[in-house]
C-alpha cells in the first residue's frame, strides 16, 4: 500500500444520514475536525436518508444534535456556519438503484475527488448500496467504503457481505470500523508493546500466567433491543471489540507500523485461536442475562422487560469465556474474556498477570505476582503492580502500584479527541491500520460460530444475574476452577 | 506497623558526646523508645572522655535531643522513660582501669552492645580492654566508618577487632543500608519477576548511581582532607548500592547469604588499569560558586582550609563487572559535594527494542528506565513509552512515568531514619544490613588500586564551580560511550 496522503478534495456521503450514529457520532466528529482545520479544504458532506426533509430542516436537525454532543466551549456560531456550508441533504432510498443516478447527478463532477461512502445503515443494505454505487459510477478508484458493525451475523453471512462488497471495491478501499480501535488507550497498547524493550522479554507463556480482558457496561440495551435481541453479547461485543483487544495483546511485532503489516499479525492470532465447539462450550464459556436489580441507586428492569425484547428471549447480555492462543508464544496461557451489560461498573480493562518469582526469599511466601493493568475506560491509565517492602521495621512485603494516569499526565491544553475523529481522518487519508480487514472479520466469525452453535446444540441458556452485579456466579467458577479469580 | 520482636540489651555508646551520637544515635534511640521498640529492660550507657557530673552531660544530651527531634514527635513522657534508661560514665577508652567502672555498670544478665562512635584507631584498644575486663563474652560490637583508609590499615583494624570478637558479633555500619529505599532494592529485585527476568546484560544497557550532596566540607577538615570523596563515599555507600543492584539472588535473607552475593560482585569488579584512569575516572574539587543563590567559597577557601590540598570532592567513574550477568554493562558512579542538589538515585537504563517500527525521527527517544530515588522524596519510577495524545499522523510517542512516591502512597506512615533501623537490627542480632569483613577488604582493595594510579599520575583534581554537576570531564566520561547522565541540566 502506498503511503497515505491527505487529499485536497473530498466528498463524504453518509448513508443513514438521519440515524443515531450519524447524528450523535459522525456529524459531531466531522464538526470537530472542521473546527480544527483537519478536513481537506474542499470537503463536502452529504447526508443521505429516506426522510423527506429539505436542506434547511436537515441543517436544523444537525445543529441541534451537534450542539448536544460537543462541549459548549467547542461550539461557535461562526464555525457552525462554515461547517453547515459543507453540509447537504438528499432524500433517497438506498435500496433503489434509480435514486443512485439522482445522487450521482447531485454530486456533479467528482473527478479528482476522494469519495467516502459511509454506510451507517443496516448491514442488509451493504450489498445493494455497493452494487448501486458501482452502477452509478460512484465506485471508481478514488472511492472508499466504510462499513459499521455488525458485519454479518455469522461466518456465512459475513462472507456473503464481503463478497458482495469485494465485487465492487478492492480490499484496499474497504474500511471496516471497530470504533474501539480508534480509542487512545487501545492505540497505546501498540506503543506499550512495541516501543518498550522492557515488556517484550516477558510477553510470553514462560512469564505470563494469564490475561484478562473485560469490557463491562452499566447501561442496558436502551433503544437497541430490536437489534440486540437478535445478536446477543457474543456477536455484539466479543466477535469484534474483545477479539480485537486480544489480538493487540497477543500479536507478534509487525515489521512496520502500517496497515498490512499490523493486520497480518492480528490475523495470525485469530488463526491460532483454539476452537471451542460441542460440549467444550460448557466448560469454557458462560452466558448470562440480566435480571432486575439496582444501578447507581436506581431500580432497573430485567432484560426481557426492555422495549422490543421478546419476553421469553434467551439472548445473552453477558459472556465470559476462556480463549487459548495455540502458538509458540502463548501456548498454555488462558485469555479470559468478559463482557456484559448492566454490570456494577463501566470498565474496559486488560490485566496481564505475571507468574510468581521462582523462589521466594521471604518467609511465608512472596505475595501476589506482578501485574500490568491497562485501563481503557473510564480514566485511561497504565499501572504496574509490584511487591515492595512495607515501610517501617522488618522485611515484610506488600503490593504497590507504579501508575500513569494518562488523563492527568497529558497536557491540560490538549482536548480529548473521540475515536470517530481518528477513524474518519484515517479514512480520508486512506490509512487502514485501525480498520478490520476482510480475513480478520471472517477468521473472527470462524471462531465465534462454533461457540454459538455449541450453545444451541447443548441448550446452554443464559444464567440470570442481577443488574448491578459482576455477572453470573458461574463466571467466577470459570476462573476459580483453575485457581484464579477476576480482578475487580 | 508489622510486629517486631523486641529484645533487651545494654547499649554502651563509646563517643557519646560526639557529633554522630548527638545528631543521629540518640535521636534514633529516642524514636525507637517512642515506638516501643526498646525493651523495657534495655539500658543505654553514654560513655565519653569528658569528666564532670553525669547530670550535666545528660542535660546537654536532652538539649541536643530536643533540637534533633521534630516538635510533633517530642513527648515528655517518652523522654522521661528514655531518661530512666540512661547513665553517663566518664572514661578514657584506652585506659584499662576505666573499664572497672564500666564492668560494674553492666548488667550480667543482658547482652552487651558496644557501639564505637569513635575513630577507628581506637577500635582495637577498646576491644582489648573490653576483653580484659571480662566484657567480651556474647558482646556485639558496632563499628562506624571509616574502617581504615586503605586495604592495609583496614586489615589492621579488622584484625585488631577480630582478636577478641568473631565475625558473627561484629556489625560494621554503612548507614545507607538502613535507608528504606535501599532495603526496597532487595524486595524490588527478588520479589518481582517482571524485573529479575531482565536484570542482565541482554536487556540492560547501563546503570547510573549518583550520590550528590549540596553542602560542602562543613568543617570536617581533619578527616576529609586526608580521605577525599573516593574514600568517604565511593568505597562504602556507592559500592554497597552497586552490590545490591548487581548481586545474584541469594537463597534466603540470612545475613551471610546476602553478603556472600555482595562479595561475589566486589570480587568481580574489574580493576581500572593505570593507562585507562584518564578515560574512566574523573576527580574534581569545587571552586567558588553559588548554592541556593548565595555565593559560596571554593574548597581551598573554606575556613581552616589546607591551601595546597589536592583532595577530591567529586568522583565520577565507570565500573565494569566481570561476570556472566553484567559483562558489557557499564556502571557509572558519580558522587560529589557542592552539587546543585542533594540527590541519591539509581537509574537502570534498558536497551532499545530490537527492531523499531514507528516514525524514524523518534528513534532516539526510545528507551526504558527504572529510576530508584533514594533521597529526597524516596520513590520508584518506571519510564515507558506511550502514545502521545492527538490526531497527528502515525504513532507519535512520548515518555510517561509509571511511578510510586513513598511520601504520597504512605503519607500517614513515618519512614524511620536509617540509624533507627540499624540500631533495631543490632539489638535483634540481625547482620544483613551490616558490612562483612571481606566486603570491606575487597572494596578497599579495589579502591586502593585507583588511589595508587592517581598518585602515580600526580594529576590534580579538576576544578568545578560549586552548584554545578561536577567537572565537564564527567560529562565526557559518559559521552565517550554515547550516553549522558540522566536528568542533568
Describe the structure.
The complex is a heterodimer of chains A (488) and B (489). In chain A, 35% of the residues lie in helices and 22% in strands. With 488 residues, chain A is of the alpha/beta class. Chain A has a 9-stranded mixed beta sheet, sandwiched between helices. In chain A, helix 1 (20-35) packs across helix 2, helix 5 packs parallel to helix 6 and helix 8 (225-250) crosses helix 13. With 489 residues, chain B is α/β, with parallel strands linked by helices. Chain B has 2 domains: 8-143, 3-Layer(aba) Sandwich (Rossmann fold), CATH 3.40.50.720; 175-415 and 436-478, Dihydrodipicolinate Reductase, domain 2. Chain B has 15 helices and 17 strands. Chains A and B meet through helix 7, strand 15, strand 16 and helix 12 of A and helix 7, helix 8, strand 15 and strand 16 of B.
What order do the helices and strands come in, and which of them pair?
The complex is a heterodimer of chains A (488) and B (489).
Chain A: E1 9-15, H1 20-35, E2 42-49, H2 55-69, H3 77-84, E3 87-91, H4 97-107, E4 114-119, H5 126-135, E5 143-147, H6 155-168, E6 174-176, H7 184-194, E7 208-216, H8 225-250, H9 259-272, H10 280-284, E8 285-291, E9 293-295, E10 298-300, E11 318-324, E12 334-340, E13 347-354, E14 371-377, E15 381-389, E16 397-405, H11 406-409, H12 419-429, H13 438-457, E17 463-466, H14 473-480
Chain B: E1 10-14, H1 19-34, E2 43-48, H2 54-68, H3 76-85, E3 86-90, H4 99-105, E4 112-116, H5 123-132, E5 140-143, H6 151-162, E6 170-172, H7 180-190, H8 193-196, E7 204-212, H9 221-246, H10 255-268, H11 277-280, E8 281-287, E9 289-291, E10 294-296, E11 314-319, E12 331-336, E13 343-350, E14 369-375, E15 379-387, E16 397-405, H12 406-409, H13 418-428, H14 437-457, E17 462-465, H15 472-479
Parallel strand pairs in B: 1-2, 1-4, 2-3, 4-5, 5-6, 7-12, 8-17
Antiparallel strand pairs in B: 7-13, 8-11, 9-10, 11-12, 13-14, 14-15, 15-16
EC number (chain A): 1.1.1.49
Domain Glucose-6-phosphate dehydrogenase NAD-binding (chain A): 14-188
Binding site for substrate (chain A): 179, 183, 217, 236, 341, 346
Amino acid at each position: 500500500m502506498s503511503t497515505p496522503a491527505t487529499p485536497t478534495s473530498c466528498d463524504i456521503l453518509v448513508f443513514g444520514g438521519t440515524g443515531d450514529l450519524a447524528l450523535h457520532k459522525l456529524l459531531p466528529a466531522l464538526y470537530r475536525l472542521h473546527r480544527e482545520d483537519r478536513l481537506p479544504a474542499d470537503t463536502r458532506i452529504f447526508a443521505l436518508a429516506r426522510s423527506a426533509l429539505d436542506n434547511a430542516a436537515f441543517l436544523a436537525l444537525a445543529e441541534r444534535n451537534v450542539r448536544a454532543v460537543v462541549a459548549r466551549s467547542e461550539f461557535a456560531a461562526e464555525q457552525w456556519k462554515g461547517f453547515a456550508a459543507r453540509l447537504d441533504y438528499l432524500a433517497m432510498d438506498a435500496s433503489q438503484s434509480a435514486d443512485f443516478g439522482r445522487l450521482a447527478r447531485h454530486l456533479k463532477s467528482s473527478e479528482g475527488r476522494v469519495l467516502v461512502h459511509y454506510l451507517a445503515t443496516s448491514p442488509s443494505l451493504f450489498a445493494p448500496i455497493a452494487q448501486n454505487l458501482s452502477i452509478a459510477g460512484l465506485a471508481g478508484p478514488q472511492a472508499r467504503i466504510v462499513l459499521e458493525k455488525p458485519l454479518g451475523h455469522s461466518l456465512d453471512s459475513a462472507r456473503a457481505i464481503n463478497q458482495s462488497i469485494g465485487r465492487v471495491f478492492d480490499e484496499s478501499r474497504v474500511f471496516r470500523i471497530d470504533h474501539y480501535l480508534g480509542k487512545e488507550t487501545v492505540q497505546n497498547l501498540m506503543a506499550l508493546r512495541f516501543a518498550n524493550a522492557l515488556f517484550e522479554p516477558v510477553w510470553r507463556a514462560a512469564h505470563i500466567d494469564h490475561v484478562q480482558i473485560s469490557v463491562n457496561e452499566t447501561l442496558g440495551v436502551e433503544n437497541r433491543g430490536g437489534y440486540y435481541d437478535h445478536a446477543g453479547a457474543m456477536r455484539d461485543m466479543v466477535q469484534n471489540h474483545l477479539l480485537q483487544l486480544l489480538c493487540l495483546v497477543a500479536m507478534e511485532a509487525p515489521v512496520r507500523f502500517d496497515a498490512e503489516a499490523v493486520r497480518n499479525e492480528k490475523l495470525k492470532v485469530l488463526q491460532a485461536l483454539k476452537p471451542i465447539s460441542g460440549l467444550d462450550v460448557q466448560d469454557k464459556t458462560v452466558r448470562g442475562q440480566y435480571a432486575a436489580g439496582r444501578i447507581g441507586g436506581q431500580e432497573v428492569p430485567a432484560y426481557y422487560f426492555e422495549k422490543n425484547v421478546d419476553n421469553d428471549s434467551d439472548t445473552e447480555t453477558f459472556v465470559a469465556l476462556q480463549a487459548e492462543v495455540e502458538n509458540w508464544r502463548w501456548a498454555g496461557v488462558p485469555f479470559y474474556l468478559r463482557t456484559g451489560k448492566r454490570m456494577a461498573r463501566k470498565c474496559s480493562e486488560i490485566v496481564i498477570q505475571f507468574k510468581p518469582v521462582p523462589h521466594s526469599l521471604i518467609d511465608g511466601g512472596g505475595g501476589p505476582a506482578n501485574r500490568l493493568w491497562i485501563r481503557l475506560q473510564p480514566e485511561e491509565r497504565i499501572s504496574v503492580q509490584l511487591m515492595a517492602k512495607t515501610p517501617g521495621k522488618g522485611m515484610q512485603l506488600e503490593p504497590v502500584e507504579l501508575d500513569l494516569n494518562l488523563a492527568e499526565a497529558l497536557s491540560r491544553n490538549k482536548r480529548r479527541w473521540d475515536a470517530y475523529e481518528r477513524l474518519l481522518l484515517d479514512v480520508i487519508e486512506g490509512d487502514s491500520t485501525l480498520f478490520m480487514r476482510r480475513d480478520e472479520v471472517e477468521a473472527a466469525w470462524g471462531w465465534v460460530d462454533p461457540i454459538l452453535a455449541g450453545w444451541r446444540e447443548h441448550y446452554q441458556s443464559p444464567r440470570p444475574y442481577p443488574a448491578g452485579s459482576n455477572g453470573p456466579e458461574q463466571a467466577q467458577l470459570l476462573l476459580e476452577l483453575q485457581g484464579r479469580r477476576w480482578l475487580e | 506497623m508489622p510486629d517486631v520482636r523486641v529484645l533487651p540489651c545494654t547499649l554502651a555508646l563509646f563517643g557519646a558526646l560526639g557529633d554522630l551520637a548527638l545528631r543521629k544515635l540518640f535521636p534514633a534511640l529516642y524514636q525507637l523508645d517512642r515506638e516501643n521498640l526498646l525493651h523495657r529492660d534495655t539500658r543505654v550507657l553514654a560513655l565519653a572522655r569528658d569528666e564532670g557530673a553525669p547530670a550535666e552531660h545528660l542535660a546537654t544530651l536532652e538539649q541536643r535531643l530536643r533540637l534533633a527531634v521534630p516538635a510533633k514527635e517530642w513527648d515528655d513522657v517518652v523522654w522521661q522513660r528514655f531518661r530512666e534508661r540512661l547513665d553517663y560514665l566518664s572514661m578514657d577508652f584506652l585506659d584499662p582501669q576505666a573499664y572497672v567502672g564500666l564492668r560494674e555498670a553492666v548488667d550480667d544478665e543482658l547482652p552487651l552492645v558496644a557501639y564505637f562512635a569513635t575513630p577507628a584507631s581506637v577500635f582495637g584498644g577498646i576491644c582489648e580492654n573490653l576483653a580484659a575486663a571480662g566484657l567480651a563474652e556474647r558482646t556485639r560490637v558496632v563499628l562506624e566508618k571509616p574502617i581504615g583508609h586503605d586495604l592495609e590499615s583496614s586489615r589492621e583494624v579488622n584484625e585488631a577487632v577480630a582478636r577478641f570478637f568473631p565475625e558473627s558479633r561484629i556489625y560494621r555500619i554503612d548507614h545507607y543500608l538502613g535507608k528504606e529505599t535501599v532495603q526496597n532494592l532487595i524486595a524490588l529485585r527478588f520479589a518481582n519477576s517482571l524485573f529479575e527476568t531482565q536484570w542482565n546484560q541482554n536487556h540492560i544497557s547501563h546503570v547510573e548511581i549518583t550520590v550528590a550532596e549540596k553542602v560542602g566540607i562543613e568543617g570536617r577538615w581533619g578527616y576529609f582532607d586526608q580521605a577525599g570523596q573516593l574514600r568517604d563515599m565511593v568505597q562504602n555507600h556507592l559500592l554497597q548500592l552497586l552490590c545490591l543492584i548487581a548481586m545474584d539472588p541469594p537463597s534466603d535473607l540470612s545475613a551471610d547469604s546476602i553478603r556472600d552475593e555482595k562479595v561475589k560482585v566486589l570480587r568481580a569488579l574489574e580493576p581500572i588499569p593505570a593507562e585507562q584512569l584518564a578515560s574512566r575516572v574523573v576527580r574534581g574539587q569545587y571552586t567558588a560558586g553559588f548554592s541556593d543563590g548565595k555565593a559560596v567559597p571554593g574548597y581551598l577557601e573554606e575556613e581552616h582550609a589546607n591551601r595546597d590540598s589536592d583532595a577530591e570532592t567529586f568522583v565520577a567513574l565507570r565500573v565494569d563487572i566481570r561476570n556472566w550477568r553484567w559483562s558489557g554493562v557499564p556502571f557509572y558512579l558519580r558522587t560529589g559535594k557542592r552539587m546543585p542538589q542533594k540527590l541519591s538515585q539509581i537509574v537502570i537504563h534498558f536497551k532499545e527494542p530490537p527492531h523499531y517500527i514507528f516514525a524514524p525521527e523518534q528513534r532516539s527517544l526510545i528507551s526504558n528506565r527504572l529510576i530508584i530515588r533514594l533521597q529526597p522524596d524516596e520513590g520508584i519510577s518506571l519510564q515507558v513509552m506511550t502514545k502521545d495524545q492527538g490526531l497527528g499522523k502515525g504513532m507519535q510517542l512520548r515518555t510517561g512515568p509509571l511511578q510510586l512516591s513513598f511520601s504520597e502512597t504512605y503519607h500517614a506512615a513515618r519512614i524511620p531514619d536509617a540509624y533507627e533501623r540499624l540500631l533495631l537490627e543490632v539489638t535483634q542480632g540481625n547482620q544483613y544490613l551490616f558490612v562483612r569483613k571481606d566486603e570491606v577488604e575487597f572494596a578497599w582493595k579495589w579502591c586502593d588500586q585507583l588511589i595508587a594510579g592517581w598518585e602515580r599520575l600526580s594529576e590534580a583534581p579538576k576544578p568545578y564551580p560549586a552548584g554545578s554537576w561536577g567537572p565537564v570531564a564527567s560529562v565526557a566520561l559518559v559521552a565517550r560511550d554515547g550516553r549522558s547522565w540522566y536528568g542533568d541540566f
